[in-house]
Structures are given as C-alpha cells and as structure tokens.
Amino acid sequence: MNLRAMPPRSARPLRRRPIFLTLASALAFALSACSGSGPAERPPLEGAAIGGDFTLVGKDGRPVRYADFAGKYRVIYFGYTFCPDVCPLDVQHLMQGYHAFARTSPELAAKVVPLFITIDPARDTPEAVGRFAANFGPELVGLTGTPAQIAAVAKSFAVYYQKREGSAPDAYLMDHSRAGYLMGPDGKPIALLPAEKDGPAVAAELAKWVR
C-alpha cells in the first residue's frame, strides 16, 4: 500500500451537510409547527351517543325543539331553579364564559345558544325557568316540560337525576349529574365545558371549538 498517496487524516474533506440546508430545514419545520398544518385535535366527545331531538317548553309556554337551533352551537346545562348552590354557580360560570367569549369574538358567539333544562319539572314552571335564566343574561334559554319529556331528554344526554325527599312535599332537593355540554351546529356532541371551574376556563374552551 502506498501510504504517501493517502492524504493525512486531518486533511480529508468532511462530508458535512451544507449549513444553509440545515437552517432551511429547521425554518421549514418551525413554520410548519406554527401554521397548525399538523393533524387537528379531535373533539373529545366526537362519536359519543349523546343528544338527540327533543321538544320542551319555553318561558312563554310554547314548544321549543332542539331542531329549532339547527346550525347553531348549543351550550346545554341540566339543573333546577331551587338548587341552593351548585346549579347557580355552574350556570354563572357558563354565562360568564359565554359573555367573555362574546366580547372577544362577537361573530362567533352569535353562533352559540346557551340552554338551561330543568330536571325538576314539578316545581319549575315555564315562568320559573324564565326568571331563573334571566338572572344570567337574555341569551340563556330556560326550558321545562312534562316529567316524561324531561326524562326522555335527560336519558338522551346521559344525565342522571333523582329526587331526594325533604321535610315537606315541596321542600326537597334533586341529586343530578353535573355537566355543561357543547354541541355542534349538527347537533352532535363536541366537548364538556368546565362549568365547575370558572368563566375564563369556559371562554377558553368555547374559543377552542367554536368556528
């Protein structure tokens, strides 16, 4: 072997990737990450068997159908007007979040309809749900119905509720599941809204999904 014919090791050219290509690749990756061109996050309730058409009664005693709000996002909360603490607080958070979202994105908020559905139809008359809803803003639609209608809609939304007997016939509480649903313009479920947290958390979730 002719050792003199081989250049010293230190003199051999290194096969390095040109630096401008490395920087270009890094820049392209950064732009791709910032542009959101990757796969979009899927709605957490996508495909869940939640929701469906219903007919209930509004504050004026007239029928209100779920389909009346087709093409709108629907925020739905199940509770009752005699609830001493949880329901008013949750609805307050939902509506604070909705109003905050409306201030920053009025055109998107116009696509959202908040609904309050009672699980205590024996006491919650149309007038009662109307007064309750009005405490949180004119946008909130209060709904009631017959016991059979309420049972049907609660079942379709996987809502649990149970009467807890009190010291008098009208002095009772209602045990119920605690959830704020965000439903899409097609009526299908998108996500649960963090009504148990606060208004800013609700507003952030609305901004994430309402388009």
Strands of the largest sheet, in order across it? 5-4-3-8-9
Task: Write down the overall geometry.
Answer: globular
The secondary structure category is alpha/beta
CATH architecture: 3-Layer(aba) Sandwich
Uncertain runs are 1-37
What is the number of helices? 6
CA-atom Rg in angstroms? 28 Å
**Oligomeric form:** single chain
Mean pLDDT over all positions: 86
Folded structure, characterized:
With 211 residues, the chain is an alpha/beta fold. The chain has helices spanning 19-35, 86-104, 106-109, 126-134, 147-156, 199-209; strands spanning 55-57, 63-65, 73-79, 112-118, 141-143, 161-168, 171-176, 180-183, 189-193. Strand 8 (180-183) and strand 9 (189-193) form a beta hairpin. Helix 2 (86-104) packs across helix 6 (199-209). Mean pLDDT is 86; it is low at 1-37.
In short:
By secondary structure, the chain is an alpha/beta fold. It is 33% helix and 22% strand. It has one domain: 3-Layer(aba) Sandwich (Glutaredoxin).
Features:
211 residues; alpha/beta; Glutaredoxin; 5-stranded mixed sheet; two-stranded antiparallel sheet; 6 helices; 9 strands; 22% strand; disordered N terminus
Q: How is the topology of this model organized?
A:
Layout: H1 19-35, E1 55-57, E2 63-65, E3 73-79, H2 86-104, H3 106-109, E4 112-118, H4 126-134, E5 141-143, H5 147-156, E6 161-168, E7 171-176, E8 180-183, E9 189-193, H6 199-209
Parallel strand pairs: 3-4, 4-5
Antiparallel strand pairs: 1-2, 3-8, 6-7, 8-9
Helix pairs in contact: 2-6
